[in-house]
Structure formats: structure tokens, C-alpha cells
Amino acid sequence: MGNSTPTPPPPAAAPVPDIRLPDDYKWPGNLHIEARDMADAAFLVYSWAYVLDALEKENITLEKKSLTPTEVKDIIKTHQEALKKHYGDKFDDDRNTMKSLQRLVERGGDKEADLTMEAFDADFQTKELVFGITKDSIKKRITLIFRGTENALAFQSNWMANFQLTKTGEELPDSLKGKLSSDKVWIHSGFHNYMNKDTVVEGDSETKKEQVLRMVKELVKKNPGYAVYVTGHSLGGALSTLGGYYLATDPEIPKPVSVINFASPRVGNADFREAITTLEKNNDIRFCRFVNENDSITIIPTLNYTHVGLQVKLNESPKVDPLVRYPKTSDVWTILWNAWDNSIPSAFNLGYDHSDYRERIETHKEKIAKLSVNELYKDSDLTGF
């Protein structure tokens, strides 16, 4: 045989250019607006899962997928008997669900049709994570919402995720390679596995993470210039932390991604915190966690886990101002204070302050309205960068 010229390797795929929001994107005027909107979304996701569960048990099918707040209210009113049968008075007019929906109707005004729930995945809510995606064409915002721990509908799968306290190492995405002190981040195995497990749908090779990212990207492509937000409460807060990380490192998602969550436990180790901090420095992510004083969920797990992003602590008393902190590592006193402030002794309580986030945000409305996520990030004394 004669000498043959070796076949050259195929050319490397061209990197996908990073997408950024327009310079003139209009962010909400203050942190209260963002916190209020995200808190309503984070808690309404529980309620809509209850609605779908009750209707499924009564063999009632909803044909329309994209729904405005008024249409959601109408569905609840129409099926009040089925909802009372399975969930008692949760959907009475004086309960938080209907109050939150009414606030959305009023905020939308004559443009309420521009506020829509675009997707909601609760088909297998006893076995896999539940999430919804909304679109706000008034604020030009797409919001990914993860449901938190749900004892009635998903006790086993939710608490299996919560109680797996080991960590899983994950290779850095391309956008972070060579920028951190480690080549991996270590993430709570329960949260990581819950996000990365295969979907229950037979024959579907997607993981939940891939499904979520695909659906968000589909909406992003249809709505150029829209910001992407991620939110959730409790377990949903942990999943929103992971979801925000994945979205902020995906070149097809416009930056910065905004994570505003509530009652989140810790999700990763110091390497994960370094990854989030690097994304914050590059304006790839805006991250703000709300915690209630004495919410014991927010200070676990402890050993070799650390919080990320801006933290706003809300006291039950209106006389105690919200406390803003950031996990900077350049100042020893800040490290020690944050360690105490997020420790088991400091958060010990018998009242379990885990749910009334919407109420506390309104209690401290005046103070929170004086804050801005973008301005807080400009405060180098707070962040250390």
C-alpha cells in the first residue's frame, strides 16, 4: 500500500457568541418590586400544582396552556367544588392564592393580557421536580419558577432530595474554565440529582435540567430583549440557585440572569460560591436571597457548604430594618459575622419562620424600596469587588 495523507480532524465548532441584554433594558425601579413579583410567583406555583392535582383527580382537562391571571382565577372559581373537596379552603377569596392573583390582575391593568403563564410541568409531581415559566410582556421578563418542598403531593421525592447531604462534583462549563481556583464545583447531591435526573416520560432521553433549559430557550428566542429571572421558595430556592447557575453559564441565554429566591438552603461548597461570585463580577448573574430571621431551613446544610449572592434578612418586627449581607471572603470580620448570622444557634426558633415571606416583604416595603440590586452590586464595601 502507498502512503496516504492522514485525514485532518474536523474543525472545532465556532463558539456561540454570548448574548447580553440591551444597554437600555429597563430594570424594575427598586428591590421591593422585584421581591414582590418573585415572591408571588414562588408561592403561586404551589397553588397551581394543587389545582392541577384536584382537576386530574376529577378527570377534568384544561385545554388552554397559556393563561392570564384572570383566566387562572376563572378556572379556580369554575372548579371551586373540586378544589374544596381535595384542598378545603385554600382557594377561598380571603386566602393568599386569590389575593396574589388579584394583585397580578391589578398590576397588569388594561395590559393584563401581557402577563401569561406559558408552561407548567406537574405531570409527574410525585416523582420529579415541578416548575412553571411565565412571560411578562410589560416588564419584558421571562420567569422560571421552581416549586418548593411539598409534603402532601411529593413527600418522598422532595425529602429524598433535601436529605442527601453528600456533594456531587460537576465539571465547569466552558464560560468558567480557567477562571476559578478549581476545575469543578461541588453541589448538594440531592438537589443536583433532582435537577439532573431523567424525566419520567417513557422514551424521553432528556433530563429535567435539559427540559427546563430547552423550554426557557424556546421562549427567549421568541422574545428577544427579554430578561430571564429564576425564583423559588425552600427546595424551590435551592433549585433556582442551580437553575440560575446553569442559565447564567449558557451562551444562548441573555445576561445577566436574575435569581431572586426565598428561604433557600445552602447548595454548594466554596468552589460553587467562587463560580457564582465570578459570574456576578462579570455581570452574568444578579443574585439576591431573602431569608426570614430564625428560618432554620436557610442555615442548612452546614459542613463545607456556603451561601451565595446578596442576602436580605427580614425580621418579623417592622421596627428592625432588613439586613443586607454578602459572603465576601476578603474581610475576616465579615466572614465571622456571616458564619454566625447563618448558623444554627442564631436561627434556632420554635416558630419555624419559613412561610410568611410575602407578608414580611410588605411589612418592610418602605425600606426594601430604597434598595436596588444593581446599586448594591456597585457597593464594593458590601461585596468586596
Give a brief outline of the structure:
The chain has 15 helices and ten strands. The protein is an alpha/beta fold and 385 residues long.
Descriptive account of the structure:
Helices cover 40% and strands 15% of the residues. It is α/β, with parallel strands linked by helices. The longest helix is centred in the first third of the chain and has 27 residues, at 31-57. The chain is built from 15 helices and ten strands. The protein has helices at 31-57, 69-78, 80-87, 96-108, 151-163, 189-196, 208-222, 235-248, 270-281, 332-341, 344-347, 357-363, 365-368, 373-377, 380-383, and strands at 115-121, 131-136, 141-146, 167-171, 184-188, 227-232, 257-262, 285-292, 310-314, 323-325. The mean pLDDT is 89. The radius of gyration is 21 Å and the shape is globular. α1 packs across α3 (80-87), α1 (31-57) runs antiparallel to α12 and α5 (151-163) packs across α6. It starts with 30 loop residues before the first helix and ends with a helix.
What attributes does this structure have?
385 residues; 15% strand; globular; 15 helices; alpha/beta
SSE diagram, text form:
Elements lengths: L30 H27 L11 H10 L1 H8 L8 H13 L6 E7 L9 E6 L4 E6 L4 H13 L3 E5 L12 E5 H8 L11 H15 L4 E6 L2 H14 L8 E6 L7 H12 L3 E8 L17 E5 L8 E3 L6 H10 L2 H4 L9 H7 L1 H4 L4 H5 L2 H4 L2
Parallel strand pairs: 3-6, 6-7, 7-8, 8-9
Antiparallel strand pairs: 1-2, 2-3, 4-5, 9-10
Helix pairs in contact: 1-3, 1-12, 2-4, 5-6
Q: How many H/I helices? A: 15
Biggest beta-sheet profile:
8 strands, mixed
Instruction: Please state the oligomeric state of the protein chains shown.
Output: single chain
Span from first to last CA? Answer: 64 Å
Radius of gyration: 21 Å
Helix content: 40-55%
Question: Whole-number average pLDDT?
Answer: 89
- List how many beta strands DSSP finds: 10
Query: Beta-sheet strand percentage?
Result: 5-15%
Shape descriptor:
globular
Q: Which stretches of 5+ consecutive residues score pLDDT under 50? A: none
